[in-house]
Write a structure and sequence with these properties.
Blueprint lengths: L3 H17 L9 E5 L4 E4 L15 E4 L4 E3 L8 H10 L5 E5 L2 H8 L10 H6 L5 E2 L8 H6 L8 E4 L3 E6 L2 H24 L7 H14 L20
Parallel strand pairs: 6-7
Antiparallel strand pairs: 1-2, 1-5, 2-3, 3-4, 5-8, 7-8
Helix pairs in contact: 3-6
Length: 231
Amino acid sequence: MDSIFTVRKKVVEICRLVYKNELVRATDGNVSARVGNNEILITPSGKSKENVEPQDLIVIDLNGKKISGTLQPSGEYLLHTTIYRYRKDVNAIVHAHPTYATAFSVAGLNLMQCVLPEIVLTIGGVPLADYATLYTEELPQSILKFIYKYNAILLKNHGIVTFDRDLISAYYKLEKVEHLAQVIYLAKTLGKVDVLTKSQVESLLKVREKLGLTTPLPDCESCDKDCKLNS
């Protein structure tokens, strides 16, 4: 495992990317990473990701107790600590409010349909959690039914949380989901979203197996039907 000094630098790098690529606005969003079996490093509350510095980050345990740092941890620390407790394989989390993905959450639409081959291979699907009140236990509770199967979850009327084995992988999932949401939105404005057929997805799953990918299997229940995104 990297030293805590290295992890601090990496978290700040992700914060800069999230802000630069307009995946958050103002002081929105939060980023965290494991720095021990029972400790995580998390971004502070009320500070823009554009301006976060390594010394601003806070160390808390998986119960949310502050261990070190001069600022207060993100008010959404419960979302992070819950994911780390349930997913021992996860070492990094990014929560953001990208425009298109958040719009889908506001519209009550998930991103489970098989549309882009690379998403089928690398992410599988992005479910939509029920609405939950910010900064309360409701938020982590809302994602529990998805937490073991998926590494990217839309939060109703809120945004998205992505997580993975390391910071850059968690961040890339965020970028991929936002790109997917934007493509689907633009396809809808052009008239129609064509989802992949079941046979097309089955071919992709064979490729997935050859590549040794362990991402969640996509939900193909409606692959041969007219995509509900067109309704």
